[in-house]
Amino acid sequence: MPAPLSEKHPDPLRADARLNLSATLASVSVALVLSIAKLWAFAATGSLSVAAALADSGLDLMMSLAGLAAVLYAARPADDDHTFGHTSVEDLAALAQSLFILVAAGVIGVAAIRRLWHPDTAPLAAAEAGIAVMVLSIVMTFGLVLWQGRVARATGSRVVAADRLHYLGDLVPNVGAIVALVAAQHFGLYQIDAVIALAAALMLATGAVRIGRGAWDALMDRAADPATVAGIETLARDWPGIEGFHDLQTRQAGSRVFVNLHVELDGDLPLREAHDIGAGLRAAIRAKYPRCEVIIHKDVAGRTRGD
What we know:
By secondary structure, the chain is mostly helical. The protein has two domains: 5-219, Cation efflux protein transmembrane domain (Alpha-lytic protease prodomain-like); 226-300, 2-Layer Sandwich (Alpha-Beta Plaits). It has nine helices and three strands. The chain has helices at 5-8, 13-45, 48-74, 88-117, 127-155, 158-187, 191-219, 226-238, 271-288; strands at 244-253, 256-265, 292-300. It has a three-stranded mixed sheet with strand order 1-2-3. Helix 2 (13-45) runs antiparallel to helix 3 (48-74), helix 3 (48-74) packs antiparallel against helix 6 and helix 4 packs parallel to helix 6 (158-187). The longest helix has 33 residues, at 13-45.
């Protein structure tokens, strides 16, 4: 008899929870350090592009804390009140992230337009200090993004993936802040600071819309991606003993995908054999897609649906 699924393919939830927790703790740590450093740099330079990076890191810190709470909550097992688990909280956290980013983008954009409209603003100061902080930010952010990417690929966490997208967006404003400070210090091009801040605001808004759309789709029970659906259909179509299938339904909740499938079997099969066929298909689906929760209903082949 084949070994149970738990022996061949351990449930990845526990390992995923550890990886997601490590990514969110790293995110909180990096955001806290960079927020303090950029606050000092903004006080020293008065640069709007540094202010944009500071606002972004401040939001990073709030969202990383929310992400940490979401990861801890999503890792809780199913209970009587949440029989399908708690992973939808990942989508709620990602949606909140997108709203925070949109607000930040609006504030930064308005400030940049005002500075462009009034070009007689006082020049930037202490550019070297601002550049040093931005270099530190780039190095720490790049390292964090590499780790978040690895975790997101391993676990499929929407919270970690959304956080990674936002930190990827941080790299451009940080590089832009360095360009603005150098241009102001050596060439007297003070308005470049506002132009780069405005570009950063547009980038943040674009990323927020993308993150929010994905979270909204999941909260509205959007089906799994077409490749996953096609893969499940292929397994069901080719599985020995199954004469047909219908009513394949999928929905996403955080990093989990819930699958409901009706398979058609010979009505004269012994109950144990029919059970083994369904259990074998379920194990095969979970082996190929480990984060799928699969429910298989067995129908008699040739019967009208609903009979």
